Amino acid sequence: MTAVVEGPEMKKKELIEAVCARTDVKRKFAKPVIEAMMEVLGEAIAEGRVLNLQPMGKMVSKRSKETANARVSVLRVRQSKSAGITQSPETVKEAIADEAE
Edge-to-edge, what's the strand order for the sheet holding 51-53? Predict the structure, then answer.
């Protein structure tokens, strides 16, 4: 089995910018939340926990290996076919506004 790369790599900076653009949340507020979320997800993967985070999908750790500088984990991701359909930025903003009320 070989890894297939279907597009350019997304870095943290690009993720933060995309979230800010989609939600109209300022970077100074979004960045610490996104970084904390990535830490929590990384810890859960390291613990071998199953992550069921829709619409991103269900992730199951298949195996992991410790190297000198890192832990390498192989995950299986099951994503529904409708997961590729994203909400419009207006829908996301309305949902955030509703939750804030």
Answer: 51-53, 57-66, 71-78
Q: How many domains does the chain have?
A: 1
Task: Dump pLDDT digits (tens) for 2-13.
Answer: 656 677 899 999
Is residue 3 situated within a structural domain? no
CATH value at residue 46: 4.10.520.10
Beta strands in 1-101 (DSSP E): 51-53, 57-66, 71-78
pLDDT of residue 81: 85
- pTM of the predicted structure, to 2 decimals: 0.69
For residues 54 and 87, what is the distance between their CA atoms, to the nearest angstrom?
13
**13-51-70-4 Cα dihedral, nearest 10 degrees:** -70
- Note the pLDDT of residue 67: 92
